Amino acid sequence: MTAPCTHPERVDGVCTSCGDCLHEVILNGACFFCGSTALDGVALSPKPAEQIVPAARLVRKKPGSG
Fold first, then answer.
1. Cys staple from 9: which of 5, 15, 16, 36, with CB 3.0 to 4.6 Å?
2. What is the C-alpha to C-alpha distance for residues 65 and 38, in angstroms, rounded to an integer?
């Protein structure tokens, strides 16, 4: 097992230095941000209300706009 990423910079839960993902949004068994399907569904769900990602963060950005 690898050590957790300690880099401070993240965009949508993905580390800008090493690519480590927090897997904050899971849709249809895959991470919305990195696409990983190797997730432990029991450990990741259900989330308490204060950890639910707001709907505005679920909108994909168009390439080149950001």
1. 16
2. 30
DSSP label of 21: B
What is the predicted pLDDT for the residue at 66?
A: 56
List, as own/partner pairs, every contact residues 8-14 make where C-beta atoms lie below 8 angstroms and the sequence separation is at least 24, other chains included: 12/57
Residue holding tokens 């308490």?
Answer: 48
**pLDDT of 16-65, one tens digit each?**
999 898 888 888 888 888 888 988 877 776 767 777 778 888 887 777 76
What is the three-class DSSP state of 60? Answer: coil
Sequence-separated (6 or more) residues with CB below 8 Å from residue 29: 37, 39, 41
